[in-house]
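**User:** Here is a favour to ask of a fellow structure person. Please take any protein you like and set down a full record of it. No explanation is needed for now; the record alone will do.

**Assistant:**
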Amino acid sequence: MLLIMLKWIVLVHFFQGCSGQESFVSEFHMEEVTGKAILSLIDNTLTVSLNVSKSFEDTRIEIHPLWMDYDTADKCSDQQLGTSWFWPTRPSTIQSIRANTLVTVTFSDLNISTVEGQSIVLRSSNKTICATIQKEGEYKTALARFTRGSVSGYVYFRQAAASSAGSTRVVTDLYSRDSISSLRWKITGAVSNCASITSRQAALDLLIYNPNNASDGVLCTPQSNSKQCAVGNLSGRLGDVSVGQSKGYSDNDLPLTGETNIGNKLLVVYETDGSAYACAIIKIFKVRNALVKFSHDGVTGTASFSQNSPFDPTVVQINFQGLNNNSKGFHIHSWPTPTKITPDQDLCGAAVTSGHFNPYNKNVNSPIYPQPDASTDDMYEVGDLSSKYGTLANLQSLNGTYTDWNLPLFGANSIIGRSLVIHHNDPAGSRWVCANVRPLYPVVTAKAIFKYPVIGQILFMQEMEEPDTETSTFIKLDYNDGRAGTQGHLWKIYSHPVASSLSISPQSCNSTGTNYDPFESLLQRPKTLNIPSVGNADVTSKFFFTDLILPLSGSQSIIGRSLVIMNLDNTTFLSCTNIELMKDLALYAQLSSKDIKGIVYFTQTSGFGAQETTINYNIAGLQTGYSVKIFELPPSDSHSCDNLGPVFNPFNITSSISMSDDNYQVGNIARFFSSKQSPAGNLNLPLAGVTSILGRSLAVVNSDGAVVACTRIENYLNSSLDQQITAVSRFTGDVNGTILMYQTLYADGTMSDTTILVDLKNLSGTLTNYANKCSKQNLLQCEVGDQAKKVGAYDLGGGRRLYTDIDLPLSGPFTVQGRAMVVHDQEHGAPRLGCADIIPNSDLFITIFIKTPPSLDKRELAKTIAKAVGANNEDVVVENVASVNEKTELKVYFTGQQGLILASEFAKFIADKDNYKKLSPYQPIPINSSYHKVPSIIVIGILFVSKTLMLS
C-alpha cells in the first residue's frame, strides 16, 4: 500500500473553481445523498473538495480503480470497483462532514498520472456512497464483448467526448476455463470481423492497428512515451491484460472519436505460443432512445428516454396532456401491454402488465421506503417514476425533464419492451391507461409459437444487425390438452428446425438436433419455465427478461433454429417449435379512379404488444370536404364501391368524446389526411390480428357521405418471390355462396394472417347464427378450424362479412386447403347445414378423369400424386368436380412456391400411360367409353402470376 500525507481543511462556503488547472468531478446520487466532489491532480498532489447533502461521521476517502455502475446491487463494493489503491496504512479519517458544507482534503506524494475514470468512495460507519471520477461533459463509451473462443468477458473503453487526445480509461473483466492469469492483447484493423481469424496462428500474425505510423517495436513499453507505440499495441503500452479479475488501465493514445478512433476495429487477446486466443469487435455505444406514446381515453403525450451508455444517467422527458386531475402514480411495469382485440379488454391489469418493474426487490410497504420526490433514485423501485419525479396528483398536464440514475436502457435491467402505466387518483390507485416502451432504433423481432400440448409464444427483440447487444424476451405459455399445470421445465434452443413434414407432437422434436450453444453455456436467462393449465390465471407462466447473449442476426443467430421445452424428467421433449422472423408489417391501398389517384401506405415495426401504425400517403384529387375512411368490406369483384358496409368499427365506438386515438372508430382516419402532413402515427390502427384492416377497403367520401373512390387494402410484397395465395369454398346446396380466403406466403416460408370473405345464403330462408376456452383473446386455444370462436359468428343471409384469422394456414404442412369448410346450425349447434371443399382459387390445375370409385379419398389421392411428382403432400389439392356415367372429373391443383414446376411435372407424368397404375386405385381413364385407350388429359390452365409493387 502507498503511504501518503494527508491534510484536511473544512471550509464553510460554496464551490469555487480553480483557474488554470484541470479538474475532475464526481456526482453523488445514491443512498439519499446528493452532492459533488471536485478533484484536482497537480504534481502528485490530489485535492478533493466535497459538498454533500447529508452529514457523515468518521469518514474516509477511497479511490478505486474501476468506475461506478449504477445498475448493480452493491455499487460501492470492492467486487464492483476493485480494491482501493489509495487508502493509506496509517489512519487519516475525516472526523465529520457536515451537510451542505464544503470540505477540502489534500493528498500529497502520490505516484499517479490520473484518477480519471476511477471512482471515489466516502465510507463511514453508517453509510457508503461512491461516484465515478470524470471530466465535465459527455463521454464516449465502447465495448468489446468476448463470447467465443477460449476467453470470455468484456473490455470497456471510456473517453471524454470533447477531445480524442484525452485519456481513455479501459476496464477489463476477462476469464478463461484454463489456468491463464494474463494474455497479450492488441487492436487490429487488418480484418473486419472475427470470423476471418480461423486459427491461433492467424491471431498471432495480425497486423497491429497503427494509423499514426508510430515506430513501435522494442521502444514501446509501459514506461515509454505512448507516441512511440502503435495505437493498437496495448501490451506494449499497458502491459499484458489481466485474466480472472477486473482491472483498470489508463491510456493517452486510444481515441474513441476522430478519424483514427478504434470503433469497429478488432480486439484480439492471445498467448504468444498460440495456445489460447479470442477476438471481439469494439463497438462504440450509440445513444439509446426509447419512447412511450399515449393516445388513450383522452390522455395524450409522450415519455421519452435517452441514455448515452450503461454508465451514464437516463434523461427522461415527459409531456402528458388530458390528465384532468384524474391521475396520480405512473410507473414502468414488467410486461408489455397487448394489442386491443375486444371492446372491454383489460389492457393494463395486473395479469396483463404485472407489477412495477423492481429488479432490486425494493419493498414499497416498508416504513423506510421514501415519500415521492424525497430521496435519490436508487432508493425507489426502478419503475416507480412518480415517486422519483413527483406524482401527477391535481395536474391537468405535465411537461418536465428529469435525470434518472436508476432507469437503464442498456443491460439486463433495461426497461425497453416493458410498459408505462398511469394510475387513477383514487384510494386503490387503479390502473387507467398504459402504453409500451418502444425502442427508437431499428430492431429485429423473432417468435416461437407453440401449438401442442404447450400453447403460447416466446418473443425475442434485439437491435438490428447488432448481435452482441441485449435481447429482450417475453414468454407466455399454457397447456391446451386439459392437463394440470407444471413447474420447472428446462427450455433450450436446438440447432435444427422442426422437420416441416412432421406433426406437432413431441415426437417431431427428435428432428431438432442438439442443444445450440455457440457460447459454451454463457447464456444468462431463466433456466426453467412454468406452464399452467388452461384457464389458470397463474401469472408465473409469464416471463420478461433481457438476455445479454442471444443473437438474432449474424452467423450465430437463433432464427431458423428451434426452441424445445423438456418434460420434468429433463431428458424427453414436451413441446417444440421453430424460431421465425417477425416481419415489420406493411399494407398499401392504391387508388386509381378517374379523379382521385394515389397510394396510402400503412406500416408498423415488429415488437412486443401494441404498436403504433405510421400512415404515409400521396393522393391527388382530394377536394375540400372529402375524407378518407376504412370500411368493413372490400370492393366487390366488379370493383364496385356500392357495398362496402359500415366504417370499420370493431370496438363499437359511437362518438369521438376526446382527441385520443382509441375514441375514434378504427376506420375513421380522416383526421390524418386533413392536415396534408405525411407521415402520421396512429395507436388504434391494427395491421394484424382479428381487428386488422387487411383486406378491407380504403375509400374517399365526399361531403354528402357518398363514396367517390375505393380500393382494397393489401399486403405489400417486398420480393418477387412473395406470393398471394387464394382459396375458396363454393357452397351449392341449401347453404349457397362462397367463402374466399387470402394469405401472403413470403419468400422465407412465413405467412401473413388470413383474411376470410364470407358471402353465404340459406336457400331455405332461415337466418342462422353460430354463436370452451377458445376466444379472440386466446386464439391458440382454438382448433384451427373453429372459425366462429376465432373470428366471429356469421349470419346466413347476412351478406358479405370479412374476418381475419391469425392461424388459418393456406400453405405448408398444416394447410387447410384440401379440407372442408362446414357451416353448422345456429347457436353453436352440432347439425351441419352445408359444407364445401377448400380448394385453391387458382388457374394452376390439371383436369383428369377416373372411373367413379365406391368412395373417393381425395387427400389420399393427393398424397399419391405428390409422391409421384416429388412434391410435399400439402402442395397438392384434389377437387371432385362431377361424376357422370361412371366417370369422375377431378381437378388437381398445385400450390406453394414450386406450384408451376409441379404442375409441369404432373403433366409429363400423366402423359405416360405406364404411370397410370402408380395412381392406383384411382387410375386415369380415357374420356371415351373404352378404358384401354390412351387417356385424354385436359390441361385446363397452368398460370403463375407474381405481382410486386415497389415502394417509392
About this structure: Residues 365 and 789 are 43 Å apart (CA to CA). Residues 1-20, 767-772, 928-952 have pLDDT under 50 and may be disordered. The radius of gyration is 34 Å.
